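Anyone up for a design puzzle?
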C-alpha cells in the first residue's frame, strides 16, 4: 500500500507520513564543517591555548569573540565564559545579587536558572508563565517582596518574553533585570537583540543551543560598572590586566573561556543568521500548511510577544487537555514526527519547576550551607505552586523546527500533522 493511498494514522497501522525521522536537533552542532576545523587547528598550531599568553604574537580568540559578539548584539561589552550557567552566576554577581536576595524566575526554565541564583546566595522565587510559556508579568508583580533584588526573564524555546511589561514592573520597583537567553540566541524584541534589554544578558553555547562551541557562554551589558564586575568575577586576575580603582577591587573565580572554544564560537557566530533564517522559513511553511485544520479545530498556537523576533526553533500548540496532548504527540511520533507535551507529571524534566527536587526541598551541600539560611523570610516551595504553568505546559504539544528539514520533510510533516489533528483534535 502506498503512502498516498493509506489514509490511516500510523499509530493505527497506516504508513508513516514521514519517510525518515527528524534529524538531530543541534542546529549549530550539525553545521560544524571545515571552517571550525581550521579555526581549531590555527589555535593548536599557534600553541596559544591560554587567553593571555603563549609562544608568539597571535591575538586571543576569546578577545576576538567578545568584540564580535558585542557588535552582533549591539551591546557595549561582552565577556566570554565557560558555560551558560557560568554566565548566569557571573551576571548575578555583576548586578549585586547576594545572600538573601530574591530573584523571580519562571516556572518553565532549565534548572540552571534557579541553581545559578542559589549559587550566588540568592533565593529563587518561582512565578507562573502565561500563554507565551514565558514569565508572566502580572504574576511577577504579585511575587515581589521587600527582599526582591532582580527579575530573570528566560527566553525559552527561542521566543522573547513580554519585555516591555517586565521592564515596567522592574522600573516601578527598582529591580535589576538579568535575561537568560540560552535558548534564544539571535532572537529580538521590537528590534532589540535579546540580552540587551535588561541590565545584563546571559547566553549559552552548549551543544543543544542554536550555535555552539560544545560548552561556553557569553555575558553582555551596556553598563561599564556591570562589565567591570563581570570581568572581575569571571577572572580572578582581571584587575591585574585592566584599569580598576583600588576601591573597586573584588575577588573573583575562574570562568575564563578557553581559546579552543572561542575559536569554534567565532565561526559559529557567523552561522547564526543563516540558521535562524532556515528555521523561520520552515516554521512559516509548517504553520501555513496546517492553518486550515488548526483554524477549523480551534487550536491555539503559543503566543509570541514579538513574532518577528522569534528564532523559530520550535512550534507549539495547545490541546484542550493533557490527555489530548499526549494522544496527539504519540500519534505524531508514530508518523516519524518528533513531538511531545512540555510537562508530564510522571516524567523527570528539569525544564519544569515541579521536577527541581534540589530546589523544592531546599537541599544544600552541607547541613549549615545553602542560600535558604540567608533568606529574610520563610520560603516554601511545592510541586503544585504554579498550577497555571503546569496546565499550560501539560496541554502544550511541542515540535522542534530543524534547519536540516528538506522541502520533502516539511511536506510530509504537514501531511502527518493534518492527518493526526483531523483525527484527534
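Challenge accepted. My sequence:
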Amino acid at each position: 500500500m502506498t503512502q498516498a493511498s493509506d489514509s490511516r494514522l500510523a499509530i493505527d497501522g497506516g504508513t508513516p507520513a514521514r519517510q525518515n525521522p527528524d534529524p538531530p536537533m543541534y542546529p549549530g552542532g550539525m553545521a560544524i564543517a571545515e571552517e571550525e576545523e581550521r579555526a581549531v587547528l590555527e589555535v593548536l598550531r599557534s600553541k596559544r591555548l591560554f587567553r593571555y599568553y603563549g609562544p608568539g604574537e597571535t591575538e586571543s580568540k576569546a578577545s576576538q569573540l567578545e568584540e564580535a559578539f558585542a557588535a552582533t548584539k549591539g551591546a557595549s561589552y561582552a565577556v566570554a565564559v565557560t558555560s551558560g550557567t557560568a554566565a548566569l552566576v557571573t551576571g548575578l554577581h555583576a548586578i549585586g545579587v547576594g545572600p538573601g536576595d530574591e530573584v523571580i524566575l519562571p516556572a518553565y526554565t532549565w534548572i540552571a536558572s534557579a541553581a545559578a541564583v542559589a549559587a550566588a546566595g540568592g533565593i529563587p522565587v518561582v512565578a507562573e508563565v502565561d500563554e507565551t510559556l514565558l514569565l508572566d508579568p502580572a504574576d511577577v508583580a504579585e511575587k515581589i517582596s521587600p527582599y526582591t533584588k532582580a527579575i530573570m526573564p528566560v527566553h525559552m524555546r527561542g521566543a522573547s518574553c513580554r519585555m516591555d511589561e517586565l521592564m515596567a514592573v522592574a522600573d516601578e520597583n527598582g529591580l535589576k533585570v538579568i535575561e537568560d537567553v540560552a535558548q534564544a540566541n539571535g532572537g529580538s524584541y521590537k528590534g532589540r537583540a535579546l540580552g540587551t534589554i535588561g541590565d545584563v544578558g546571559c547566553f549559552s553555547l552548549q551543544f543543544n543551543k542554536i550555535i555552539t562551541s560544545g560548552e561556553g557562554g557569553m555575558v553582555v551589558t551596556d553598563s561599564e560598572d556591570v562589565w567591570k564586575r563581570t570581568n572581575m568575577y569571571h577572572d580572578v586576575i582581571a584587575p591585574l590586566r585592566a584599569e580598576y580603582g583600588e576601591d573597586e577591587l573584588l575577588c573573583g573565580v575562574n570562568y575564563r573561556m578557553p581559546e579552543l572554544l572561542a575559536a569554534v564560537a567565532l565561526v559559529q557566530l557567523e552561522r547564526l543568521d543563516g540558521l535562524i533564517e532556515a528555521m523561520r522559513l520552515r516554521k512559516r511553511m509548517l504553520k501555513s500548511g496546517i492553518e486550515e485544520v488548526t483554524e477549523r479545530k480551534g487550536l491555539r498556537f503559543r503566543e509570541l510577544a514579538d513574532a518577528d523576533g522569534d528564532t523559530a526553533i520550535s512550534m507549539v500548540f495547545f490541546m484542550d487537555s493533557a490527555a489530548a496532548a499526549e494522544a496527539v504527540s504519540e500519534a505524531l511520533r508514530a508518523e516519524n514526527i518528533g513531538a511531545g507535551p512540555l510537562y508530564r507529571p510522571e516524567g523527570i524534566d528539569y525544564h519544569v519547576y515541579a521536577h527541581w527536587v534540589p530546589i523544592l526541598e531546599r537541599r544544600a551541600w552541607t547541613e549549615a550551607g545553602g542560600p535558604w539560611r540567608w533568606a529574610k523570610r520563610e520560603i516554601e516551595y511545592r510541586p503544585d505552586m504554579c498550577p497555571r504553568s503546569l496546565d499550560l505546559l501539560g496541554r502544550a504539544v511541542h515540535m522542534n523546527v530543524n534547519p536540516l528539514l528538506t522541502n520533502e520533510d516539511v511536506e510530509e510533516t504537514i501531511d502527518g500533522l493534518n492527518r493526526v489533528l483531523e483525527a484527534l483534535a
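A detail worth pointing out: Residues 34-269 form a domain with the Aspartate Aminotransferase; domain 2 fold (CATH 3.40.640.10).
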